Give the backbone structure.
Amino acid sequence: MMFHHAANPKKPQKGEWVLVTGKDFRSVMLSCPVCGGLAALDHDVDTVWWVTTGVQCARDGCPFHERIALEDWDHGALHPLSEKG
């Protein structure tokens, strides 16, 4: 499933992603395409746009669990667990 780059990074809609950066970290926030819940992606992203493993919504009762890609990803490889300060 393709997640679209959020038009409004302060309020991603269902099925959208936004890159969050800080002094010592980079992370991706996802909005679940089923329930709209927001969560930080804790999986790697390759240099093209594929997330390396399936993503499951963190909200109780939400059935979303798929392998996803991030449309318009041009930020290189992302390894969120190793990039935190």
Observations:
- Helices lie at 80-83.
- The CA atoms of residues 4 and 30 lie 10 Å apart.
- Strands lie at 2-5, 16-21, 26-31, 38-40, 55-56, 65-66, 69-70.
- The two ends are 30 Å apart (CA to CA).
